[in-house]
Write a structure and sequence with these properties.
The protein has two helices and 28 strands. It is mostly beta strands and 568 residues long. Among the domains are: 1-111, no CATH class; 121-313, no CATH class.
């Protein structure tokens, strides 16, 4: 922390003394904004034959300090306990990214982007620097990554976190150009540290210490503002277990690459190398666009700089878009061919046609339809979802969503109806061994809302039928919820009460029920702050999955600093 503090002070000193004096003559010299959020939540749960309790405390301070043209975003976060599930829980976070002209410094918990298949979406804790003077594009960082070696298998709000290693990481990016036309090359390295732990323990775990090296290049070119060309090319070498003995490498391609990178990464019989690359060309005008893209990701391709990779595919697609009637009709479509078994080592090779169609139709000022149909994954981003009361890290492989809506009303009453059908095919992306990673989720719902503006009250009715198929369990829920809300004129106090009931079925047999009730209260403290109080109760009885009863309470205080008083 002392080193980070010294670097921060040196940076502020340098940028202050390099500031052009003309900046002090323009506009505001000093500006600021900040918000504080404090929260606490307690939980008591009876499940099976045991009774457990837990609590969470959360504090967050966010803001921006601007002084003489120097922007300093501030983000301080602290969370302890089990109730707030996420990719990194519990955690303490601190991060600032002060910038001045073409220099940006990252301190603490920050994110930087190199390319789609190298360093993309992961948060590091350390120091980073981005320097873009003119056409030069320079960036680098050094710090620690949150390893994904966790099991997030939670009932209701409970989460278990298994953390094994400290993962050291650093990277450098060199490039030339601007945001639209550029050429970048980069280097990324991550390695698990295990010096302070007994080496023998690693042979009894599914999470041995690993190491990763990625080198690559990315480029973009715009021609006449209508034609856009882009490519990504990444070579990744992963050693899944640094402690494994050296032996014969399975793939000839890996052997040749490992001979080159042997001096930069630990190599043994668990080392694998692979390529991930894509190239696209797109033509876009005001009302339409068309393009073509080719993508290939080798089998077992992995980068520690991203959460998830859909590997072992080659894919060629054509995409097009159409915008008509002043954007009241928007259609985007992708069609192509996808093949797996790149290394020809599997018994079967699948060749399939892939497509993605998304549309937004505004039939009138009060109604329209949103729809998406896709049978393949468009990106490498993972998601966190609850399947059968268990949080899982998943990747969506196909999506069908159809959602017509209708809204109407007058100065007193406002109505809204939304129907929705959503079906997803998912793959479990968690770093744990499960018998079957593929599953599906389906939700059919109908919602009606009514707002009475004069009395500042309303209610909503929500009917739903859901079905989850995962890991041998086919569980469906049918039911609904009713919510009432009211805001009082003088005190500005807001109340929201919701009750729900769902009937459970396992395959074709009844499997219990779920009842829940929630009370949410918002109490304004001043023009700049408010206090939120929440209490809830859940009662679930089931045979196929775990039964439990839960009572939880929580409070949250939000306050905005430096806000101007409202004029009467």
């Amino acid at each position: 922390m002392k080193i980070i503090g010294i670097i921060f002070l040196i940076f502020v000193r340098v940028v202050l003394f390099s500031q052009d004096i003309s900046t002090f003559r323009k506009g505001s010299l000093f500006d600021k904004s900040a918000s504080l959020s404090l929260g606490y939540q307690a939980n008591t749960q009876e499940r099976d034959t045991q009774r457990v309790g837990s609590n969470t405390f959360f504090a967050s301070l966010r803001g921006t300090l601007s002084m003489a043209g120097i922007q300093m975003p501030l983000n301080l976060t602290y969370r302890s306990g089990q109730l707030a599930g996420g990719f990194d829980n519990p955690f303490i976070r601190f991060g600032v990214s002060p910038s001045y002209k073409w220099v940006k410094l990252h301190l603490g918990h920050r994110q930087m982007h190199f390319s789609n298949y190298s360093f993309n979406g992961m948060t590091f804790r350390g120091v980073g620097l981005e320097v873009n003077p003119g056409i030069l594009r320079l960036a680098g960082f050094k710090g620690y990554l949150q390893t994904p070696n966790y099991i997030q298998d939670s009932l209701a709000a409970y989460a278990n976190l298994v953390q094994k290693f400290q993962r050291d990481a650093y990277g450098v990016k060199l490039g030339i150009g601007n945001n639209n036309n550029f050429l970048d090359i980069y280097f990324f390295k991550a390695k698990d540290k295990f010096d302070s732990v007994n080496k023998g323990e690693f042979f009894r775990t599914i999470f041995p210490p690993a190491e990763n090296l990625v080198i690559g290049s990315k480029g973009s070119l715009n021609i006449f503002k209508a034609l856009h060309i882009e490519y990504n090319l990444d070579l990744s070498t992963v050693t899944n277990n640094q402690l494994s003995r050296f032996d014969t490498i399975q793939y000839e391609t890996s052997k040749k690459i490992i001979d080159i990178v042997d001096g930069f990464i630990t190599t043994n019989n668990t080392t694998r190398s692979g390529l991930a690359y894509d190239g696209s060309i797109n033509y876009k005008k005001r009302i339409f666009n068309i393009g073509v893209k080719y993508r290939q990701i080798d089998q077992n391709y992995k980068s520690f700089g991203m959460h998830y990779t859909l590997d072992d595919i080659t894919q060629t697609t054509i995409n097009t878009g159409l915008r008509l009637f002043k954007s009241k009709l928007n259609v985007n479509a992708t069609y192509g061919v996808q093949r797996n078994n790149i290394n020809q080592i599997k018994r079967n090779t699948s060749l399939r046609k892939v497509y993605n169609i998304s549309t937004n139709i505004m039939i009138s000022k009060t109604g329209g339809i949103n729809a998406t149909i896709s049978n393949f994954a468009l990106d490498q981003r993972p998601g966190l979802t609850a399947i059968n009361d268990t949080f899982r890290l998943i990747q969506q492989t196909s999506v069908i969503t159809i959602s017509p809506y209708l809204r109407w009303g007058n100065t007193t009453l406002h109505h809204g109806i939304i129907a929705s059908f959503n079906k997803n095919q998912v793959v479990d992306a968690s770093p744990v061994i499960v018998s079957n990673r593929e599953g599906s989720t389906q939700i059919i719902s109908l919602s009606y809302t009514l707002d009475h503006k004069k009395s500042k009250s309303g209610f909503n009715l929500h009917l739903t039928q859901s079905n989850d198929k995962f890991n041998g369990i086919d569980l469906s829920r049918t039911g609904g919820s009713l919510g009432l809300r009211k805001t009082f004129e003088k005190s500005k106090l807001s109340l929201n009460v919701t009750g729900s009931y769902q009937k459970l079925r396992n395959e074709l047999t009844d499997d219990g029920q779920v009842f829940s009730a929630t009370l949410f209260v918002v109490l304004p403290v001043s023009n700049a702050g408010n206090l939120n109080l929440r209490t809830g109760f859940i009662d679930k009885s089931s045979v196929a999955t775990r039964s439990f009863k839960e009572i939880n309470i929580g409070c949250n205080f939000n306050y905005s600093f430096f806000t101007k008083k409202k004029k009467s």
